[in-house]
Amino acid sequence: APGSVEENMKSEAARVVVVNGTGIAGMAATTSDYFKSLGLNVTGFGNTGDYPDKYYYPYPNRTVIIVHAGKPYAMQYLMALMKFNSASQIIMDFNPHAAKDIVVALGYDWAGPP
Predict the structure, then answer these.
(1) Is the pTM of this model over 0.90?
(2) Chain center to CA of 64
């Protein structure tokens, strides 16, 4: 598609939810605000109990993206932004009826060193 990944991500308008698994209170809210400032369509945030998706290894040691609907530009944008370097950080869980397209499950790596 013509345009940058950022432009395509914005026009794709993937519904993104941010889940906190970092052990640091407020990280999902802070990250949601950051993502919104970049143009991502964040529709919710909370803890794993608020969004009971299928969280698999390497979470919570590493951040993962759970994909419920094909949103390639949002995935590509998030993977670059969050410096993903492993295919194990992407979990495909196709569900066309899900209220969100992508769940960003923040792990210890996103919180940084203590």
Answers:
(1) yes
(2) 7
| Distance, CA of 49 to CA of 57 (rounded, Å) | 17
For 75, residues 6+ apart whose C-beta sits below 8 A from its C-beta are: 65, 67, 90, 102
CB 60 within 8 A of CB 108: yes
Q: pLDDT tens per residue, the chain (114 residues)?
A: 789 999 999 999 999 999 999 999 999 999 999 999 999 999 999 999 999 999 999 999 999 999 999 899 999 999 999 999 888 999 999 998 999 999 999 999 998 765
Strand, helix or coil at 90?
A: strand
**Residue 49 DSSP SS3:** coil
Q: What is the DSSP letter of 50?
A: T
Task: Please give the DSSP secondary-structure letter assigned to residue 38.
Answer: T
Instruction: Please name which of 90, 93, 92, 67 lies closest in space to residue 79, comparing C-alpha atoms.
Output: 90
